[in-house]
Write a structure and sequence with these properties.
Strand content: 15-25%
Largest sheet: 5 strands, mixed
Number of strands: 12
Helix content: 40-55%
Distance between the termini: 36 Å
Length: 308
């Protein structure tokens, strides 16, 4: 049994059993991947994959357990490499962050600029997705750090650190009738066509629950994952925008009026997630502290139960 074979098994599973795609990621040939998988199965006397001719169609029951162990081995190998890199060259490496559009667009730029200044030789990758995709990427090791508002705390293998809380605002064109309503209520909002986040994004499910708990059904005419898209359609007069208050900038959005509605909805908490079994490089601790200053290296290690 070779480490290379485990790597091939792991990548084939990650590529939805597509050997050609796995070979491309591994910078090798498709026949080479197939041959190593066959040799592995012959050595252990079990089939990892189900087949229809030469095509892989599924994973056997023992294969599920083998692939789970292979994934752990690959993660441990990555951790070993990180340990070596940390003590041989502290200021170089790669940091991959998975986050939602709202966080990437409105909350992270200041921290990312400071990070790139402090660690100019670290390559930074940002993957955008919905909260469940963000959590999944960190959980399987495709991202080092995940930043999102919902779902990320639902994964048992992730340590979730509460970063900050935020709430919502309503945006409308100047002169809109809603601006004459006085203090807004949920009932008043239901009288207008609403444009807001997809309920799988950026606290959207909490908004849905708040209306539901009040026995109300908002007239949602359009949803989007991007606050800029929401504001664009509000500008066109298609509805009232409900979005994160961090997404409204008085100068950039001078064509829109903003009404704070924090009194209508509970605060949402943005979490930062890392794998509990990950070895964190020094610059990763640095990035975490830039996002959540109350989590310095000592505090993160305490949460991870790592000795200082």
């Amino acid at each position: 049994m070779k480490l290379q074979q485990l790597r091939y098994l792991h990548e084939v599973a990650r590529q939805d059993l597509n050997i050609t795609n796995a070979a491309e990621v591994l910078f090798t040939s498709q026949p080479g991947v197939s041959k190593q998988i066959q040799l592995f199965e012959e050595e252990i006397g079990l089939q990892v994959f189900l087949r229809n001719g030469k095509r892989l169609t599924g994973i056997t029951e023992p294969g599920q357990q083998i692939l789970s162990l292979a994934a752990k081995v690959m993660h441990d190998v990555d951790n070993i490499k990180r340990v070596g890199d940390e003590f041989s060259n502290v200021e170089t490496g790669t940091l991959t962050i998975a986050t939602t559009h709202t966080q990437a667009r409105y909350k992270l730029p200041t921290a990312i600029k400071a990070f790139m200044t402090a660690y100019p030789h670290v390559k930074l990758n940002i993957h955008q997705g919905n909260p469940s995709q963000v959590a999944e990427q960190v959980s399987i090791g495709d991202a080092d750090i995940g930043i999102a508002t919902e779902y990320i705390s639902d994964f048992e293998n992730l340590l979730c650190l509460p970063c900050y809380q935020w709430n919502r605002c309503v945006v409308v064109p100047h002169g809109h009738p809603l601006l004459l309503e006085g203090e807004l209520t949920l009932e008043k909002l239901t009288a207008y066509p609403l444009i807001t986040y997809d309920f799988g994004y950026t606290g959207g499910s909490l908004v849905s629950k708040t209306f539901s708990d009040a026995g109300l059904s908002p007239n949602v005419v359009l949803t989007a994952i991007d606050a800029d898209v929401i504001k664009t359609y509000v500008t066109l007069g298609l509805g009232v925008g409900l979005l994160a208050n961090m997404a409204y900038d008085p100068e950039r959005d001078a064509n829109l009026a903003m009404v704070d509605v924090s009194h209508l909805f509970p605060n949402s908490t943005t979490y930062l997630g890392v794998r509990k079994d990950a070895f964190l490089r020094g610059y990763m601790y640095g990035f975490i502290e830039l996002i959540a200053p109350h989590f310095n290296r000592q505090a993160v290690n305490a949460a991870l139960k790592i000795s200082a």
